[in-house]
Amino acid sequence: MITDDAEIRSILASSKTIAVVGASPKPWRDSGSIALFLAGKKYTVYPVNPKYEDVLGMKCYADLKSIPVKIDIVDIFRNANEVEPIVDEAILIEAKYVWMQLGVINERAAARAESAGLKVIMDRCIAIEHRALMR
Question: How far does the chain reach from its first CA to its final CA, in angstroms?
């Protein structure tokens, strides 16, 4: 599990593509506002939610496997008990990092991701970390 600020800064600096799982077209929801924030910081953002075709002007994908490019960070906005299948898919698509947002804690999923070679950030907000570390 990654908790070191320097390593998180390095991840944010080197990553280009971010899948936002659980993205919502409602701009007042954290998943939508953070997807827009990340897009504004020059990341290529891929919203993932099977309920929508479009999220805040971005094409939305039903699942991680549907995204046509390599994903660096899988940013998860789902309940902790829904994380394991997402992590399995992140492993399948060979993502580099799994990022579980604030309040999303699933140790078993994190261990599975790490054993497959993915690095994990858990219970931290990617936007808060970006604002604090990427000045």
Answer: 24
For 120, phi then psi, to 5°, come to -125, 135
DSSP secondary structure code for residue 61 in this structure = B
- In the chain, helix, strand, coil percent, each to 5? 40, 20, 40
Confidence at residue 26, expressed as pLDDT on a 0 to 100 scale? 85
CA 30 vs CA 13, 49, 93: distances in Å: 22, 14, 25
Nearest to 20 by CA among 99, 96, 89: 99
Q: Is-contact 49 60, C-beta < 8 A?
A: yes
Euclidean distance between CA atoms 14 and 21, whole angstroms: 20
Sorted by sequence, the CB contacts under 8 Å of residue 95 that are 6+ apart come out as 19, 64, 71, 72, 73, 74, 118
Residue 28 has pLDDT above 90, yes or no: no
Task: Give the type of residue at 57.
Answer: G
